[in-house]
Amino acid sequence: MKVAVIGAGVSGLAAARTLHQGGAEVVVFEKSGKVGGRVATRKVGDFVFDTGASSIVPRGLALQSVLLNELPQDELHLIQKPIYIFENHHISVGDHARNSQPRYTYINGNATLPNLLVDGLDIRLNTSVETIEKADDGFAVLDTKFDRVVTATPIPQAAPLLWGIGETRPFANSSFRSCLSILLGFTKEFEQMPPFHALLDPEGRNPLGWLSIESVKSPNRAPNGCTAIVAQLNAPFSKTHFEDADDKIVEWTLDSMARVIGPGWAEPTVKEVKRWKYSQPEGLASFESVNKPGSKVVIAGDGLLGGRVEQAYQSGLRAAQILLVG
After folding, report:
1. Exposure check for the chain: N or C terminus, fewer CB within 10 A?
2. How far apart are CA 159 and CA 162, in angstroms?
3. Could you tell me the residue ranges of all domains in the chain?
4. Tens-of-pLDDT digits for all 326 residues of the chain?
């Protein structure tokens, strides 16, 4: 069985890896120049930032065994400090259930995970697929014939891929929010090291929805005496200001940070903005409704089971299993 996987985010890589292990011939098409999707890392000088997914929390799903038993673990790091919350600019201890789950990152960035998952796979980077076409008893993707196809793009991009084969799927419940992710590097440290590695605004009242102290989260994220921070702005603010100038977005971010962690963080030496158009699903389509048993074109992605890394992996795994069983 020859299978095309469209999209090399975590769900696509999970599907490809599972199919490859099951004996299928797999080709993965990815429109960007790297794998991983939102499991992404940006290095600026000696600063290392996870620009999308901040950590990996397997929660007993399939990714747990992959992470802890199958992939190399020499760079895997168990995050020691918890997530705290901030409400009305007041910081307090976070949710016990959330913090009781083992939370992982990689010392050189979370992009290490997808870079490990590609081992043995045929990945075609910088290759955009606009449509799937019917071809004899199978399908054509970029003029190459395949027996089966997995789409592992954001759901809004999956529907147009199906038009070429005259198919629609019940995607109506799947919607996504955007996110502005701001990377900040400082040539200073906290006077007193915080007891948390990240802060979360559970009510969404502050433009700043998430603050990850990368250099507390993991070793090797900033030079000695320096601090690396990733600030992610909440969904309404990100939607309204998505196309605004980077300098303005950084200014708003630093102002919000000062209200949460105090003054003294107004002069970053590194300041970059990463825009995620399809950041997290706000509504989910049903995996079972979208993928009927016996389907030859199967849909994977975080718009089906949830936006966390382990959920994206689970989606790709289940998509592959449909094809291997069918």
Report:
1. C
2. 5
3. 1-35+118-174+284-326, 39-110+176-282
4. 999 999 999 999 999 999 999 999 999 999 999 999 999 999 999 999 999 999 999 999 999 999 999 999 999 999 999 999 998 879 999 989 889 999 999 999 999 999 999 999 999 999 999 999 999 999 999 999 999 999 999 999 999 999 999 999 999 888 899 999 999 999 999 999 999 999 999 988 889 999 999 999 999 999 999 999 999 999 999 999 999 999 999 999 999 999 999 999 999 999 999 999 999 999 999 999 999 888 999 999 999 999 999 999 999 999 999 999 97
Residues 6+ apart with CB under 8 A from 76: 67, 104, 106, 107
Q: Does domain 39-110+176-282 sit in CATH 3.40.50.300?
A: no
Closest CA to 40 of 113, 120, 118: 113
